[in-house]
């Protein structure tokens, strides 16, 4: 009897945590979009300087990491205790966790650098769409790579992503004339 009461209580609590997660993600997406609009305004006023924006966006928060110094130190010790790994082509041997961190930093730099260059060339809405699509592709890759189940909710999210992308790119408008031309070409053959 106690197990069933725990399950009844756990359901609403799990749902509330799920709602909190959705709210946090929504808030982060809205703040990201607002930051994009702000960047767009700054680029119009002061010129397009993606490297400068990249620097300030990442250098200014660095002092905040001092608050996490003990935790960072503990993880550095754990990284040092990981198994050794020889980096291909270079021949350098280092703990594997440091190698993973280095690869993550390099790939993140390439990605964020591309986003900041994109912010100088496109509207903030386009940048937000591209970044959302990149996150979606990463999610799909993660589901496939780690062999997680692809549920009905994933399919619904996939449909929203694709329909939203098609609506923004106005593919529907360009499909109308294309389909009309196809219908005109078929009619003489049918008669």
UniProtKB/TrEMBL annotation:
Q: Which domain of life is it from?
A: Eukaryota
Q: How does it sit in the membrane?
A: Multi-pass membrane protein
Does the keyword Zinc belong to this entry?
no
Which GO molecular-function terms appear in the entry? UDP-N-acetylglucosamine transmembrane transporter activity; UDP-xylose transmembrane transporter activity
Q: Which UniProt keywords apply?
A: Membrane, Sugar transport, Transmembrane, Transmembrane helix, Transport
Where does it live in the cell?
Endomembrane system
Q: Give a GO cellular-component term.
A: Golgi membrane
Q: Which InterPro entries match?
A: SCL35B1-4/HUT1 (IPR013657)
Name the residues that span the membrane.
15-33, 54-73, 153-180
Family, per the entry?
Answer: Belongs to the nucleotide-sugar transporter family. SLC35B subfamily.
PANTHER family referenced in this protein's UniProt entry, alphabetically: NUCLEOTIDE SUGAR TRANSPORTER SLC35B4, SOLUTE CARRIER FAMILY 35 MEMBER B
List the protein's name.
Solute carrier family 35 member B4
Which gene holds the coding sequence for this protein?
Slc35b4
């Amino acid at each position: 009897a106690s197990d069933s009461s725990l399950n009844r209580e756990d359901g609403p609590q799990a749902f509330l945590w799920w709602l909190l997660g959705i709210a946090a993600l929504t808030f982060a997406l809205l703040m990201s979009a607002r930051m994009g609009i702000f960047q767009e305004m700054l680029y119009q006023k002061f010129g397009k300087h993606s490297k400068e924006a990249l620097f300030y966006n990442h250098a200014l928060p660095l002092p905040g990491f001092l608050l996490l110094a003990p935790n960072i130190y503990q993880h550095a010790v754990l990284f040092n205790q990981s198994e050794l790994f020889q980096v291909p082509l270079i021949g350098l041997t280092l703990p594997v966790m440091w190698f993973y961190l280095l690869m993550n930093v390099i790939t993140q730099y390439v990605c964020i650098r591309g986003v900041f260059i994109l912010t100088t060339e496109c509207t903030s809405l386009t940048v937000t769409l591209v970044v959302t699509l990149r996150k979606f592709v990463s999610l799909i890759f993660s589901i496939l790579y780690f062999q997680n189940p692809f549920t009905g909710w994933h399919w619904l999210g996939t449909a929203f992503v694709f329909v939203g992308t098609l609506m923004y790119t106005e593919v529907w408008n360009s499909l109308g004339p294309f389909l009309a031309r196809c219908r005109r070409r078929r009619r003489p053959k049918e008669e």
